[in-house]
Amino acid sequence: MTTTTDINDTSSPLSTLVQEAKGLAAAPHDAYHDDGETHVAVNSERNRPLYASRIKVYPKLAKGFFRRIKWAVMLVTLGIYYVTPWIRWDRGLNAPDQAVLIDFPHRKFYFFFIEIWPQEVYYITGLLILASFVLFLVTSIAGRVWCGYACPQTVWTDLFIYVEKWIEGDRNARIKLDKAPLSLSKISKKVSKHSIWLLIAFATGGAWVFYFDDAPTLANNLLNLSADPSAYMFIGLFAASTYLLGGLAREQVCTYMCPWPRIQGAMFDDDSLLVSYKDDRGESRGKHKKGASWEGRGDCIDCGACVAVCPMGIDIRDGMQLECIQCALCIDACNDVMKKVDRPLNLIGYDTPANKERRLKGLPEVAVNLLRPRTVIYTFLLIAVSAFMLTTLVTRATIDLNVLRDRNPLFVQLSDGALRNGYTIKVINKEHVPQVFRVSLEGITGAVLSRQFVGHENVSDINVPADSLKSVKFYITLPYANRGQLDNGEADLNIVVQNLTTQETVKNATVFRGPED
Amino acid sequence: MTSAPHKDEISGVDTTGHEWDGIRELNNPLPKWWIYSFYVCILWSIVYWVLMPAWPILTTDGWTYTKGLLGYSQRAVVTEEIQDAQAKLAPFRDKIAASEFSEIVTNPELMSIAVAGGKAAFGDNCAPCHGSGAQGAVGFPNLNDDDWIWGGSLDEIHTTLQHGIRWDADDDSRFSQMPAFLADEILERGQVEDVATYVLTLNGSAEANEQSARGAVVFAEQCASCHGADGTGNMELGAPNLADHIWLYGGDLPTIVETVSYSRTGVMPAWSTRLSEGTLKELALYVHSLGGGQ
After folding, report:
1. Inter-chain contact B28–A5, Cβ cutoff 8 Å?
2. N or C: which end of chain B has fewer CB atoms below 10 A?
3. Do B14 and A8 touch (CB under 8 A)?
């Protein structure tokens, strides 16, 4: 599966390492084919290590169009991440003025003009559905764009590698430094690199907690060491995972831990634009001397530039691989070389399997077909879900009404022959000031509304404090004379709740029950 | 499925010999960090066994378990949490036990605690007969309605709870006894049927006729002294209202005939010996709050 662990390839450094470690270097592992006395099977236990060290990847800094895009994306995404908690948004008195705030103690989520209560978490579900459709659409059009440009793992790893390059130098300098014996300069470089990494990691964890509390207050408390211990714990947790995943684990996160590469592989089709090496043009590859003829050979001069810049440590020329996050840095590296040797650009580039097929058959390339069933379906679903969410968001009431009918008992027979049903009415006041709500009945005649616990100024009015839920038990009594409305022991009715200040009204359909005929 | 392990043609990696529908598994080595994480997990589990309750042990006294150095027990935690909650409630419950109903009803905080406590106590003690929703059953009154045999005010409900109904062990128990008119040979079978027919006319569920007219005479002689001339009952005596739409044992003719013939003697325990005064008050408030309290 992975090229880095191909132990049977004698040229692989891992294999050599393993052989040496097992004292087998003298005995060739493919002695199977020998006629000598040692016959070691291909799958000999001795040949098969159970586990292997990671082979460190030293990505060279690429320069070019895609590297510039990645810098821009990094700037924007990290900017959004670090700055967002500090944006203010005026919601008036009694409400936080932080634009984006996840307020766990009060169980509310603020996002600019949107306020989400716990029972509206389906908006988050909707957002996740939208996010996945965007992801599916983008992936079917242009492959692992998310992995290559926008995934936090990619962005932070990119940042960490840049810091590494800044302190220790580029690829060759870093390889040399790691091989060099311990010296004062090596120690100082390593210490400063890890210190900066930790600083970034703590800034990452630090920014995270600001989403959950008023940022300026929390920042002040954090500095005074008077913030809640959970804040320090989460900063520590996120700092540790950022340092570990972005600094140390890097490409292993994508290769071993992330399920997404496996899923995305199923979303490509023949018309997907994927970062690929055009072997029809590049092969046969070989070294090229300046001024030599390009006749009878491919454009690939086997310079290894694409391998040197790859943060995943793979060779794009081996074809589509699970490890490839399609960051397009090999395109930059190769184009640099193609310019120097004066050959057409994009020997490595965004290419569709369909066009590769056509070129192999000697047919001209065709424009990428964007209108394919899967792109159309994804786009349609994307629009449908967005429209649905937008509609519910715009038409959302600021009153939330919930009526729970008593089920035990279903109804109560009163001594004068009347029937009584109990209803728990829950009203949520989403305004930041107290409100009075008036309860009335609709669709049933003669029914009388009463309320548990006497001593209320007005039976049908509910006073709800700001930003709160109030639960009140009401009884509806249907006199004996009005029983005729029951159809097989059941009558439909609406419980209507009106906000007396805003006149806004919500209804909840329920039933009144009596004995079945 | 298995296939012979061999070197995979494309990757050059050995296969494990495991094969599923033509998909073969490559025998790549595990990353070292993975195996080390696995070892750390094993170590952690051993530390956990030492610190936390872990292994069952069979002793001569039956099964027990290793308690762990930290002595953690979920049961102990729950017990402690319940004690904490009780301790927090204690001042309120003492106040409920010591206060008059009139004081509790006007104090919303005490009231909500009392009703919640009453609901819990009702589920533990009363629900087996009266039902979890206090909806009652044949012979066990529905406590949601507005019909009360012994009175539906807070004080009356409280007294009923304290001393029970026909509870021999309590001298103050509420007691009423309707004669078994047929069994005790006070009335003839025909007269019982007449009076039952008359009773059915009291709430308007049957038309008056010749038989009910005969029954009315019997009623005036035998029943009116307790149930009242108009059959509306008498709470002082525990004589049920016969002119309403609520029946404890059933309002059809055969059931009423049976009731008149053999009487009914439902029993409710006296709870003052089993529950604290505060709990009884809470129960009274809860029952009163169900919608029928007077």
Report:
1. yes
2. N
3. yes
